[in-house]
């Protein structure tokens, strides 16, 4: 039985290493449901969405991100001001209080992938490195959903 388990463990670990993950954890910060929408080759931007959870006792902050799929990544906030929807960069990042969950989603705070370097097609995965003040770097992959998606296909499952 031990031999059988050992023979199955190595291929399973190898497979796990190549399966893209929309979830990740580094230190006290957990990232889940990371996704983006499909965009064409001429799109000036794309957006990244996800859920961030601080499982620790100290505050943290998302301060930046990068991906090879875009020239740069900015943290943006979208909100209604005097009846007009406005989008602005958040140069101070996204606060992540201890024990709290913060959702980056459509119509609110999100990551702006500026100058996609290629088309993003539904079903693909986009590598993304998030930078936190305390937790450091967290690597995750954005699942690419349909162009008009309001949530990832796996939401609620």
UniProtKB/TrEMBL annotation:
Residues 1-24 form the signal peptide. The keyword Transport does not apply. Pfam families: PCuAC. InterPro entries: LpqE-like (IPR007410), Lxx211020-like (IPR058248), PCuAC_sf (IPR036182). Gene3D superfamilies: PCu(A)C copper chaperone. The keyword Signal applies. Keywords: Signal. This is Copper chaperone PCu(A)C.
């Amino acid at each position: 039985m031990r031999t059988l388990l050992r023979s199955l463990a190595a291929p399973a670990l190898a497979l796990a290493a190549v399966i893209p993950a929309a979830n990740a954890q580094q230190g006290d910060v957990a990232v889940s449901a990371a996704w983006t929408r499909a965009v064409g080759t001429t799109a000036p931007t794309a957006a990244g969405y996800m859920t961030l959870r601080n499982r620790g006792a100290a505050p943290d902050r998302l301060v930046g991100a990068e991906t090879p799929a875009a020239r740069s990544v900015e943290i943006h906030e979208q909100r209604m001001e005097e009846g007009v929807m406005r989008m602005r960069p958040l140069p101070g990042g996204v606060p992540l209080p201890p024990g709290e969950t913060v959702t980056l989603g459509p119509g609110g705070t999100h990551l702006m992938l500026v100058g996609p370097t290629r088309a993003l097609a539904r079903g693909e995965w986009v590598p993304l490195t998030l930078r936190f003040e305390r937790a450091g770097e967290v690597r995750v992959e954005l699942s690419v959903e349909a162009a008009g998606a309001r949530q990832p296909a796996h939401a609620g499952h």
